[in-house]
Write a structure and sequence with these properties.
By secondary structure, the chain is α/β, with parallel strands linked by helices. Helices cover 60% and strands 7% of the residues.
Length: 735
Amino acid sequence: MPARPRSNTTSLVKARLEAGLKLHHAGAFPAACAAYAEALDLQPENPEALRLHGVGLTALGKIDEALSAFAKAVKVHPEFPEAHYSLGNTLQAQKRLPEAVASYERALALRPNFVEALCNLGNALMATDQLEPAERAYQKALRLRPGYAAVLNNLSVVFRRLDRLDEAIDAAARAVAAAPRHTDAHNNLGVACKLAGRREDAVAAYRRALALEPKLAYVHHNLGLALDDLGRHEEAVAAFRAALAANRFYPEAELGLGFALQNLGRWSEARAAYERCLARNPRELKARTNLGTTFQKELRYEEAIAQYRQVLAADPLQREAQNNLGTALQSARRWPEATEVLRNLVAREPDYADAWSNLGVVLGLQHELAESEQSFRRALELRPGHAEAHNNLANLLLSSGRVPAAIESYRAAAALDPTLSSARFNEGVARLLSGDLEGGWPLYEHRFARRSEAERHRFAGTPRWAGEPLVGRSILVHAEQGLGDTLQFVRYVPLLAARGATVHLEVQAPLKSLLSRLAGAASVHAFGEPLPVFDCHCPLLSLPLAFGTSLDSIPAPPSYIAPPALAAPWSAALRGRSGRRIGVVWSGNPKHENDHNRSIPLADFAGIFAAAPDNHFFCLQKDVSPTDVARLASHPNVTDLSPYLTDFAATATAIGQLDLVISVDTSVAHLAGALGADVWVLLPFSPDWRWLLARSDSPWYPRATLFRQPAVGDWGGALEGAGAALGARHGVAAT
């Protein structure tokens, strides 16, 4: 067969290449490659056919064949810049970046104004962290084509990584102006704005990107991060959920979702998000650290400790996990271990202010007050604006009796961080302790910020009473703290009834029987029981604020709870006892956060029994350890009533048959005061706010006498004072 004329062959090759390009652009890569192969059959050394065949093979994932085609193209025609450029693209896609850079540079040596090669050279250089050379490549491309949106967008990323944020914002904004539908440019504008602190602008940029492409998971993720930084946590949760709806295998979005939920106090939901993140990426140490935080917030300290230890096993230098481990050990009352962990951390990282602050806390709990204060002040030297360290220092000052200085530090903490509700709350406590009730009650309301979302919004649909007229209205008064708090503040129920209200009372289950006949209460309900309809509500400890209670207007009747008329199974234990009958309580609820300060070991308390040997003592503690049961049995003038104390009504009946109650600061002390019994209360050096300072009486309980530690941790001094008073009262010398 005669050979085709050369001109005819060239036309056929051109036609097959054009057909292949149309198929390629339509995504029909196998058909495109077939067209390119037909062109090569006609002209085996046609450089453009070889190049396009390589591009098509790359699209089909046949990388080795593609590289062979490119190699042949540049061998046949070494001065063919497009072949070097296409080879560079395939090498870059395979992460063979140095080779890709070399190919782009060869293309540019042949055609210095090859804009696409400059753009992709910049991309390859940026991918290898050669940021300044990448910038030069992009800037040259822009001089050749000023409105090239892709280059402007990538240049923005380079500027951002060089921490030249103003230039990054400008480049991204120019990219958006050149190509308003360029979603990645909108996203990069948002990222640069967020890093520059322009979070609202970042949110707007992300929303513009999502208006163009609503299912871009990474943009939803970035939007969530910006919203969370702005404190718009609910919106952040929605954004992270949208990211996961678009890509359910997105561990970074799970991490962000967990943190937003954590900021909302929704600990169990946050924990589930962190667990999903770890299921998809077990090496995500930040998720495991935050998982530990959720356990810690739910008081599951041992589980938190286990998570932090896993993080540190993977990365012993992970300081946040080590710091959190210290705080978790502290919360678990493993104070020596916590001290060791935090000391090691500040020794390794002496500029870590958070660790110094937390070390101060655990030292203070162990009454190492001087060193504790030094730790807080070191934290503040390192970071004068450390609000939490100011707050912690104030707590130490308050526990040392330096109330004015504590208030000053609380105010400094709140000024530095207005969202730090604990500082405002603690200032309220300090003011109440000092007797400034008018100044303390409003600040005491900040206690609600520390509670779960469910607690804060339990009665969100019902007005809260704030002192307005109540005639003809019904009100629910609900307990919110400990049993002693409930017993102290139900004194306000008769006052509400006197204002014309129908008062419904919700209390802890152990108090329902005792308070069922409380004057002024139309009904009494235990937590979890159905409640009647009511017009408004008020937390029990917010009643003093609503009533405007001052030190001079505390409602303090001789008694306001009547002891129930119950059969007393312990009557036989009371009969035939010489001298006076004295009830005793030496320790409180071991789960109370301040129990280590307010409880006394029975071995130390036993001196009270010896101080009045001619009288008889009755244990009013509901739960007594086996060790203490045996210790009580060694005192002939002590009877353990704990087996009979089934609820507070039973305890009240017992108190009604006694002459005196001596107690540490527990619910029994409040019960005795509310019943109008004589009660002696043993108090730590820095007592709970309701006992005020430097006085032996209580404006809340007319028949109470207070015995205080003369120094921090000095129970011996308080017990000696009570023993001396008891001995004098009964004509017996104290021992």
